[in-house]
Write a structure and sequence with these properties.
The structure holds two protein chains of two kinds.
Chain A (H helix, E strand, L loop, with lengths): L1 E9 L4 H11 L4 E8 L5 E9 L2 H13 L3 E6 L5 E12 L5 H10 L3 E5 L3 E8 L1 H11 L4 E6 L3 E4 L15
Antiparallel strand pairs in A: 1-3, 1-4, 2-3, 5-7, 5-8, 5-9, 6-7
Chain B lengths: L1 H7 L4 E3 H11 L4 E4 L6 H7 L5 E3 L4 H15 L3 E5 L3 H15 L4 E7 L15 H5 L5 E4 L6 H13 L5 E7 H5 L1 E3 L19 H13 L3 E5 L1 H5 L3 H11 L3 E3 L14 E4 L6 H9 L2 E5 L5 H4 L10 E6 L13 E4 L2 H11 L6 H13 L13 H11 L5 E4 L3 H9 L8 E2 L10 H11 L5 E6 H7 L3 H6 L5 E6 L4 H10 L14 H8 L2 E5 L5 H10 L4 E6 L22 H4 L3
Parallel strand pairs in B: 2-3, 2-4, 4-5, 5-7, 6-7, 9-10, 9-12, 10-11, 12-13, 13-14, 15-16, 15-17, 17-18, 18-20, 19-20
Antiparallel strand pairs in B: 1-8
Helix pairs in contact in B: 2-3, 2-7, 4-5, 4-18, 9-14, 11-14, 12-15, 16-17, 16-23
The chains are: A alpha+beta, B alpha/beta.
């Protein structure tokens, strides 16, 4: 099962290396990792997606929390969260294909951020499965380049009890 | 540039190196272990005038083991200083050893100037990068104003919670910079929380389980020793009437002369301890971590038992086995709280069963052999020292025989590398323990191969006139490896035998005293002479080269599926 772990860490050199090193040393796999500063410049937030059974992920959570520079770790499993990825994708786009591709971008609530003679660069944000679907939709045109941030997530204020707790809509 | 800073600096500044020494003194450091090098010259210059005693090892690894054993034997934080590059990399084995056994060490390493870092400068190594997985915490100083509080934090982190080594990498320009002297600030480490006291409801559940249990066993580890919890453990075992087995790291936590002691469990544990664990209906684990050398095959480990796990480190709980009643907290407080809620139970059948197991499968060896049996040497040493010596060891057969045949009665009496299994630990550990316990009798029971790895530290023992004893169990092999080759590789002794020096003469060359015994009848007198010697003294015992450690739980087998039981069994 996929778990989203959210770790508040000290914004200091070596912390990312420590976290990444711990995963490698204990043979845990990171699916994605997103790091950024928080509103408090002394703290950063790491959102780590890991795949594993509950026991493994519980051990990951404890090992993370044990790192001195890690302030707090939360496992969002079983919680109603908003989870988002951001992607920049460059698609082959000869002038005659533009209307088709722009329609596709609109359908996925994406944004054209750069356009040239051969390619168009599109920004898409959303839940992971939406990003995956957009990639598949673009494949027939030819993908020149693609870059993704990895998931960031935050729990909702009101927790509703549904089976699929990872939010897929806005 | 330095001169300029000095001229313009206000009166209340000191060089960083002086700040380091002052902060060490403030933290109560009386002795440290350190090896000189280019980028720690400013620091050693300030140590020259300080009341701190500096012990110079012959190799940084040895120094780190000394600081480690100093810490293990005294309960204080061990301090080690090394230079950059090779000095720091030589520390790694010592740090990893301390990390695995949760020993509080503060290691200070020199580093090249900050403006040279990353340039592959002379004697530069990425020390924090290299040591990150083998320290509890590490940090590089980039601002000299951080020196004092970083050192204070290091002592705090090393010695609180689950203890461990902390390394501070200090570039040489930080040591020479002028630093304003500021009063100590309270330590603030957001996210570093230590839960000393167990959760009341968990403790009540544990007490209920204990009171209801017919066949309980206390399985205790190094956490009882580092948590200074031996006294509440003894009281709990007595009050609730529960037998106690110890891990290698736990030996000394409970008096082995006590009838409730089941001695050591695990791969080379006492058969009666292993059987008792397998037959128990309640296993109370205190400050141990279900290591593979203890549990054997996990699936069948204590499979009839409910498990209570008391540990300071939440990540130790449910790591290897599912736990029924977890209690996060320091063994000292948790056991004291438990003590109030447990009741005496007679458990007649259980103790009869244990007595039967003890009678049927005692730890024993062939006393009639014409050769010197290694167990005999250790047993004789135990007799002659009245079981009171501080014992250190290397790693291998001699370590297991020591665990089996030297009966420990108090915490911090047995200093051994358990988790990492570091050969060569014994001699430097004896030196560190002797430094920390000047009046005590300290004996390194070592193997020839282990001793070979760090014997250069004999020079340190001689230099500081330390009356340590080295009781060398010399079988001419890497004994434990040879035992595995005998049992699992058809006696093909690939690369496991060594051409040894004459250790007694070597000891003499170092300025120590060297003795040896080749015949069984010489053993008592040689041990006596060794113990009476005031100088560092090595006694080389030429033991039966192919003696094995029994019993043995082969890898992948259940704890009760021990080999060698037929050799132990009494008719």
């Amino acid at each position: 099962m996929k778990h989203i772990l959210s770790a508040l860490v000290h914004n200091k050199p070596g912390v990312l290396a420590h976290v990444a090193g711990m995963f490698a040393a204990r043979a845990f796999n990171i699916d994605s990792l997103a790091v950024g500063r928080t509103d408090d410049p002394s703290l950063s937030r790491m959102t780590i997606v890991v795949v594993g059974d509950d026991r493994v992920v519980e051990q990951v959570r404890k090992q993370l929390a044990k790192i001195v520079t890690v302030v707090k770790v939360q496992d969002f499993a079983g919680m109603d969260v908003v989870a988002r990825d951001l992607m920049l994708i460059s698609i082959a786009c000869p002038p005659e294909k533009r209307p088709e591709i722009l329609a596709l971008v609109e359908m996925f609530q994406g944004k054209v951020v750069d356009i040239g003679i051969k390619f168009v660069m599109v920004e898409v944000a959303g839940p992971e499965n939406k990003i995956e679907a957009f990639i598949e939709a673009c494949r027939p045109y030819g993908i020149k380049n693609l870059v993704r941030t990895g998931t960031v997530a935050m729990p909702r204020q009101t927790q509703t009890k549904t089976e699929h707790n990872t939010d897929n809509s806005i | 540039m330095t001169t300029k800073t000095e001229q313009t600096a206000p009166a209340q500044t000191k060089p960083g190196s002086q700040i380091i020494v002052d902060t060490l003194l403030e933290q109560g450091v009386e002795v440290l272990f350190g090896y000189l090098g280019g980028v720690v010259l400013p620091l050693f210059d300030k140590l020259y005038d300080s009341p701190i005693r500096v012990i110079i090892p012959r190799h940084e690894q040895g120094g780190c083991h000394m600081a480690d054993a100093y810490a293990r034997s005294t309960g204080k934080v061990g301090v080690m200083i090394a230079t950059s590059g090779p000095g720091a990399t030589n520390l790694t084995t010592g740090l990893a050893t301390a990390m695995m056994d949760s020993v509080p060490i503060v290691a200070l390493t020199g580093q090249v100037r900050t403006d040279l870092i990353g340039n592959d400068a002379f004697q530069e190594a990425d020390t924090t990068g290299i040591t990150r997985p083998i320290t509890k915490h590490n940090v590089i100083i980039k601002n000299p104003n951080d020196l004092a509080h970083t050192i204070r934090e290091a002592f705090y982190i090393a010695s609180t919670g689950r203890p461990g080594p902390v390394l501070i990498d200090i570039p040489v320009d930080m040591q020479v910079a002028q630093v304003p002297v500021t009063p100590p600030q309270p330590i603030e480490l957001p996210g570093y929380r230590v839960r000393e006291h167990g959760h009341a409801r968990q403790i009540s559940s544990a007490a209920e389980a204990i009171n209801a249990s017919q066949r309980p066993v206390l399985y205790v580890g190094g956490g009882v020793i580092s948590g200074n919890a031996s006294e509440p453990l003894r009281k709990l075992a007595k009050k609730a009437n529960i037998p106690v087995t110890m891990t290698l790291m736990g030996l000394g936590a409970f008096d082995q002369n006590d009838p409730l002691s089941l001695d050591m469990l695990g791969m080379h544990g006492a058969a009666y301890a292993n059987f008792a664990v397998q037959e128990s209906d309640l296993l109370i684990c205190v400050g141990a971590r279900f290591d593979d050398r203890v549990t054997g095959k996990l699936k069948t480990f204590a499979s009839h038992a409910r498990i209570i796990h008391i540990d300071l480190d939440p990540s130790s709980i449910a790591k290897n086995v599912p736990v029924d009643i977890p209690v996060v907290g320091n063994a000292r407080y948790v056991l004291a709280d438990l003590l109030e809620q447990v009741e005496y139970r007679e458990r007649k059948e259980w103790f009869e069963r244990i007595a039967e197991l003890k009678k049927r499968y005692p730890l024993r060896y062939d006393r009639n052999s014409k050769m010197i049996k290694p167990q005999y040497v250790i047993e004789e040493l135990w007799h002659q020292t009245q079981g009171q010596a501080i014992i250190t060891t290397g790693v291998g057969q001699h370590q297991m025989w020591t665990a089996q045949f030297y009966k420990f009665s108090r915490p911090r009496q047995f200093i051994t590398s358990g988790g990492l299994g570091t050969m060569g630990f014994g001699l430097p550990a004896a030196i560190g323990a002797q430094i920390g316990n000047p009046g005590a009798l300290v004996v390194d029971i070592d193997g020839d191969s282990s001793f070979n790895m760090t014997l250069t530290e004999l020079s340190t023992a001689v230099m500081y006139e330390l009356p340590i004893k080295i009781c060398l169990i010399n079988n001419g092999y890497m004994g434990m490896v040879r035992q595995w080759q005998e049992l699992f590789y058809g006696r093909r002794y690939s690369c496991s035998s060594l051409k040894n020096p004459d250790f007694a003469r070597l000891a003499e060359a170092f300025g120590a005293v060297g003795l040896s015994a080749r015949k069984k009848e010489e053993v008592p007198a040689v041990i006596k002479a060794m113990l009476e010697e005031k100088k560092p003294c090595l006694a080389d015992f030429y033991v039966d080269p192919e003696e094995n450690v029994w019993p043995m739980v082969p890898t992948g087998k259940s704890l009760h599926e021990m080999d060698g039981l037929n050799l132990l069994e009494m008719a």
